[in-house]
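Thread: Newbie trying to understand structure tokens

Hi all, I'm a second-year student working on a class project, and my supervisor (Dr. K.) asked me to get a predicted structure for one chain before our next meeting. I've only ever worked with sequences, so writing a 3D structure as a token string is new to me. If someone could post the tokens and maybe explain what I'm looking at, I'd be very grateful. Here's the chain:
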Amino acid sequence: MGMENILRTTASRWMEGKGNFADVVISCRIRLARNLEQHPFPNALSEIQAKQVIDEVQTAVCKAPKEMGIFQFAALEDVSPLERFVLVEKHLISPQHAENPVGRAVAIKEDQSVSIMVNEEDHLRIQCLLPGLNLENAWNEASQIDDMLEGSLDIAYGEKSGYLTACPTNVGTGLRASAMVHLPALVLTNQVSRVLGLLPQLGLAVRGLYGEGSEVMGNLFQVSNQVTLGKTEEDILANLSAVTRQIVDKEKEARQVLLQDAGEQVEDRVWRAYGLLSNARLISGQEALALLSDLRLGMDLGIVSNPVSEVFNELIVITSPAHLQFFTGREMSTTARDLERAKLIRSRLI
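---
Reply by user tm_fold:
Sure, no problem. This is what the structure looks like when written as tokens:
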């Protein structure tokens, strides 16, 4: 499977709609920040040094045993701007990585569960994305990739401080763990600010759909650890897992309250969303996410039986601007995207 096939395969592994607490937790992610001992951090690399880092990482990735899967490696300069943002919308690279391709690269596993960003904020950003709350499995997979790379690369590590990273908040384990949660009931019952507002006191941060600096849309929130120094990987994963389970419980409680106290209004909201999504001829990205969130709530409450959660997860991605333009093969105005988005959603729901 080449990079072209990765771009054209609409469903990634994290979209499967399976895993623990999949009715609330859309996906989980493990990201490891690593740097090479003999090179300056990426913000201080010359173009020649950046190319040396890319070559060293590519050589190491090519040594991966077959049981770890097949990786496709590409310099971002060889990937068009539109294709780079397709990868962003799939959560395979960060928006920051896509914006400046010079001296940057990416390696992506064929099932799109693992990607390795080269020369983003750090020389290596190893990430694993899995459906549901499967942090332990994601950690195991990311850790195996990390061990494989460390077998070939001289990784910057201090006996006292741990892994050395460009940002001080990542020093130590270099681990960022996150869960993407769908919280429509907490939003509708005006509890989401209270529930999520407590998280910074627990060492966790709340971000939008595409991570740091991104907007919250479709009632989708990313919850992640803030600090790695002084904490073990086990501590970080246990804390995030425990807190995410509490968020899941609060969301499920709120869903039951909605059914008991406003069941007819909820049903009306869900079926209105289904009607609009199934019949609209023009729909913006923000409106589509809001309506898809209402429809997914109806699916999880048993109000509607179609579509399945996998379709919902896929639609979050393929109705995004870069995907719409990539699959139609042309640049599109906002109105043209709204037309194509509505057409695509109808085709998946009817």
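A couple of things are worth pointing out once you decode it. Residues 116 and 126 are 5 Å apart (CA to CA). The domain at 3-251 is CATH 3.30.590.10 (Creatine Kinase; Chain A, domain 2). Feel free to ask follow-ups in this thread.
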